[in-house]
Amino acid sequence: MAVVATSTSTEMRSEKLIKEQMENEGIRKDIDVTQLYLADSDLQSVTNLSRFKMLKNLYLNGNKLRRINCLKFNYRLAELYLENNQLVDISGALKHLTSLHTLMLQRNQLTKLEETVQEFKAMQSLKVLNLFSNPLAQEHEYRMYVIHFVPSIELLDRSEVLKDEQDRANQLYQQEREVLKQSIAFGRRCEGPPIRGATPVVEDNHIYDPKKLVANNFHSPPLQNPDDAVTARANNRSVMQYSVFDWSKVPKLEERRQKEPTDPAPVPQVITVRFK
């Protein structure tokens, strides 16, 4: 009963703060509220804010919030400040806020990386995200994980997301796709051995019998020996070279997550194949 009473009292206090703010700004209708400042108010819970349909900026930082359950219908939120609280879980609380482009969650108590990132996957406009000073930020490959599963992020934990980081994240978490891409991208012609014979000539009947092929060109006489002609024709073929990454020795996501952060990151080997 004491917990319920405390929660109710803080909700009433947040309601009072909202009323005072609207009066100070001369706002009479809930629909005209686009910004609310409830920071540093020692709040453990916040009154339901669903009635503020046009709310875009919300400051709840510097309180004692452990969970967020006051934003069920605030779909227009663009900036949400929740840093310096006591949040332990945000599952199901933010994923519907698809208009967010700035989200501050640093200095909380979030521990579950997968569940937390799951909240951001539908936020295609999310550009700025802070998660540092949470236990989950200590997990191995934390930054790569967030960059891969929230590709819209441009600034993560006050550091710009670089193209090299995006490529590395794709290599870590989309290994099968990267293997296919590398196998296609690395295919190229390379310089073959020197020509030792003449260009082979095929008879008019188009029957590709090696014994009937006789090599010839404008600079050398016809080869009388069919075996020499076949050898000359083989030497004239272009040599192809393909290089691919061998990902079989690189541990998958579950295995990497179990490794210690100090363990060196495995580097895939390059396999090169040449043929004619």
From TrEMBL:
The organism's place on the tree of life at top rank: Eukaryota
InterPro entries: Leu-rich_rpt, LRC72, LRR_dom_sf
Pfam families: LRR_9
Protein name: Leucine-rich repeat-containing protein 72-like
